[in-house]
Amino acid sequence: MDSTLACLAAWMPRQRWYAAKGRPPSLRLISWWDFPADDQDARVRTYLVADEGALPVVLYQVPVVARPTTTVTASGAHVIGSPEPGTTFIDGPHDPAYVGALMGLVLGGGTVSGPHATATGHPLVAADDDEGPVSAHVLNGEQSNTSLIAPATASRPAVICKIFRQVNQGRNPDIELQTALAGAGSPHIAPAVGWVEGTWLDPGAAQQTVGGSLAFAQRFFSGVEDAWRVALRAAADGTPFDREAHALGRATADVHLSLAHLFPTRPAEPRDVDGFAETWRRRLSIALAEVPAIAERRTAIEAVYARASSARPTLQRIHGDYHLGQVLHTENGWVLLDFEGEPMRPIRERVRPDAALRDVAGMLRSFDYVAGSIRLDDPARPAAAVRAWVDAARAAFLAGYAEATGDPLDADDPLLAALELDKAVYEAIYEARNRPTWVTIPLRAIGRLAATHPA
Ligand SMILES: Nc1ncnc2c1ncn2[C@@H]1O[C@H](COP(=O)(O)OP(=O)(O)O)[C@@H](O)[C@H]1O
Ligand SMILES: O=P(O)(O)O[C@H]1O[C@H](CO)[C@@H](O[C@H]2O[C@H](CO)[C@@H](O)[C@H](O)[C@H]2O)[C@H](O)[C@H]1O
Q: What distance in angstroms lies between residue 288's CA and the mean position of ligand 1's atoms?
């Protein structure tokens, strides 16, 4: 097993979903389970490994197909390594044996098990017994998880199945919130198709079995673009985005209203807002260590946070990592995706009731990212026109949101300002770790947002 762990530890840091960038993992095997495979050459296994170098410890789900090296046809990019002579490990989602096994579980149900661990499929739609092994391909792009797309068949629409790379105790909020919203008939959600839940021994507590979500399947909207693409094109062409942004504000408010109806809400108490401020300060100190350019803004940033200390919003479940890339432009309007919350926040914080303005702030930042990305692509482009596009989109989004909630929304609200600034600080850390050439986008925003609200 040591050679298997060494092989995984060498490969994981190169994966986008590996959280502790710049540090090799310190892996401990927690468990595994094997799927039955039709292909005699393939052993289909999911490893649960804990990265104990991370604080708190991060548990990863690593599906692996082991094949005799002489039979491997997978592209080198998807090969994990050869832990033993003659055997090659392939990244499971890129191998048909794992794809067929996982999709079979999520669409058809059943349980697979390993030492003190299980994985159980919970299909929500009746399976087509004649379908045979489901084929699917990995969705390309920069994602926190790995998603498989299974094309439509005569008996079912196309399906996207997200494999959660980081595994936590309890139901993943992506599944929890979207199944509740879909069940309540929200038109802004992709209908759920099924999910996979697992049990394993808690890495932090001897002999205690815990459970959590492993994968989530939803209807896949083929051939549609996300709001990021649509907005980027509109901004680059100089086409107004006001109507779309207004409808996006309305859809956002509609989802917030549904979540407030479906899950408990409560007024914030002083300790809640102190908790927000504590998170902002903690994040700022990480950002100061990882992105030193922020240091000159420190006092101004803290002043913006201090202005929000008397805010008392109603707390409710929210999206938590809301940006243009999380919304699809379908023929029936905007559809929201990925309710997992901020990947960098511990899960226990992500499932707590929160301020709905956090999502509003996330989307406002995303409009600014459109301008930033255009400037990165074409530094010679006059900044003023793109800025005017962003300002109009922001205003339209806020107007649509306020209209649908029926509550006026002050664009200078101190809590909104603090949340927007905190999101920019989050983005500075995120970009420094994942896309260093993009870090100028949040850095410029931090300068602007801190200067707009002087002490
Ligand atoms: N139901 C869907 N229909 C079409 N595309 C989807 C669907 N769900 C996700 N996508 C695409 O996959 C991308 C990643 O999905 P997301 O849920 O954000 O995963 P991650 O947690 O890995 O970031 C989205 O930005 C979107 O482009
Ligand atoms: O992968 P996730 O969807 O969970 O989100 C993470 O990655 C996003 C980048 O892909 C990051 O979003 C940032 O970049 C977007 C443009 O690519 C921009 O629209 C967002 O406003 C900006 O925050 C997100 O923060 C991160 O959690």
A: 31
Q: Atom of ligand 2 at shortest distance to CA of 342?
A: 27
Closest C-alpha to 326, from 178, 443, 158, 152: 178
User: Ligand 2 centroid to 127 CA: how many Å?
Assistant: 34
**Whole-prediction pTM value?**
0.91
Q: Contact at 8 Å (CB) between 349 and 390? A: no
- Highest CATH level, class, for 225-452: alpha beta
Q: Taking a C-beta distance cutoff of 8 angstroms, is the pair 230, 329 a contact?
A: yes
Residue type, 63: P
Q: How far is the CA of 325 from the centre of ligand 2 (A)?
A: 7
User: Could you say which ligand is closest to the alpha carbon of residue 439?
Assistant: 2
Ligand nearest to the CA of 366: 2
Taking CA atoms only, the protein residue closest to ligand 1 atom 17 is: 338
- Distance of alpha carbon 212 from alpha carbon 119, whole angstroms: 10
Residues β-bridged to residue 217: 161, 194
The confidence score (pLDDT) of residue 454 equals 53
Strand partners, 64: 45, 91
Closest CA to 16 of 89, 83, 93: 93
CA–CA dist 68, 265 (Å, integer): 55
With a 6 Å cutoff on the Cβ, whether 338 touches ligand 1 is yes
The number of the ligand 1 atom at minimal distance from the alpha carbon of 224 is: 4
Residues contacting 232, CB < 8 A, separation 6+: 370, 373, 374
Question: What's the alpha-carbon Rg for the chain, to the nearest Å?
Answer: 23
Distance 146 CA to ligand 2 centre (A): 15
Compute the distance between CA of residue 401 and CA of residue 351 in angstroms, rounded to an integer: 23
* Stated length of the chain: 455
How many CB atoms are located within 10 Å of the residue 149 CB?
A: 15
Distance 280 CA to ligand 2 centre (A): 18
For the CA of 218, the nearest atom of ligand 1: 1
* 221 touches ligand 1 (CB under 6 Å): yes
Closest CA to 227 of 334, 371, 362, 340: 334
pLDDT, residue 244, reads 97
Per-residue pLDDT at 364 exceeds 80: yes
According to DSSP, the residues that pair with 122 across neighbouring strands are: 195
Which atom of ligand 2 is least distant from the CA of 340? 4
Inter-residue contact 42 to 67 (CB < 8 Å): yes
Distance of CA 201 to the CA centre of its chain: 25
Q: Read out DSSP for 420-434?
A: HHHHHHHHHHHHHHH
Q: Comparing 81 with 455, which gets the higher pLDDT? A: 81
Ligand nearest to the CA of 337: 1
Range(s) of the chain covered by CATH 3.90.1200.10 = 225-452
